[in-house]
Amino acid sequence: MKKLLLSFVVLIFLNFSVRGQVVELMGMGIKSKTSATLEIADQYNIKQADLFAVSKGLNTLPPIDGVLFDNEDSPSSNWIPIVGSQYLSYVKDESIGYYTRSFANPLNEKFNASIKIEDYVHSFYAYVYRTSLTASYKSVVNVEQVFMYHNGSAKKYVYTLDIGTETASRDLTIKVPISELDEGQRMIVIEIEAGPKYQRFVENTYNSLGNSLLIGEYQLKDVPGNISEVTISIYSPDPGSDNLNGDSFFVGGVIADVEKVFNGCTLTQGYWKTHSTCKKNGNGPKRDDTWDLIEGGKAEKTVFFESGKDYCEVFNTNPGKGGKYYILAHQYIAAELNLHNDADPSDIASTFDEATKFLHENTPEEVNNNKDLQQMCVRLGGILDDFNNGRIGPGHCDDKDEYTEKIAIKVASSKNKVNVFPNPVRDVGKIAFTSKQSGDTRIELYNISGQKVGDLYNGVTKKGADVLIEFSTLHLKRGLYFALVKNGNDTMRHKISITN
Question: In whole numbers, what is the pLDDT of the chain averaged over residues?
Answer without folding.
Answer: 81
